[in-house]
Amino acid sequence: MNMTLFAMILLLLVALLLIWVMYLSGQVRELKRDVERLKNYSPSSPSNMPDPQTHFIYDPAKFGHPDTMQLDDHLRFRLITLIRKGSKIKAIKELRIATNLSLKDAKDVVDRLEDSL
User: Fold this and answer.
1) Which of 64, 92, 96 is nearest to 79 (CA)?
2) Helical ranges in 2-69 per DSSP H
3) Which of 35, 40, 51, 58 has a beta carbon 3.0–4.6 Å from 99's, enabling a disulfide?
4) What is the per-residue pLDDT across 65-106, written as a single tens digit (0 to 9) for each?
5) Residue 48 pLDDT greater than 80, yes or no
6) H/E element holding 89?
7) Alpha carbon distance 8, 3 (integer Å)
């Protein structure tokens, strides 16, 4: 009786560990894809980088109206990554920091980006 119970508990633990390993291997594959995308990302050279003092200020001339806003590739990739991970609020915060948009406008931009995925 005790050996049977012990064997069943052990079998259950092995099954749970196997499920956990499969889950983690999926996470590793996703991280590898992200690393590949980052390796292939070619940011502009440092001389072409925007001034940090002005880059993070929302400027309609630079970004356009929130309804038709054009995001740079790096910010767009970061927002899409956050949205896919289910961190929509973090995506909104990051967009607000990068562009100084209002909460409503940033949410609208992130919603449109999510709808386009």
Assistant:
1) 92
2) 2-40, 52-55, 60-63
3) 58
4) 555 567 778 888 888 899 999 999 999 998 888 888 888 888
5) no
6) helix 88-99
7) 9
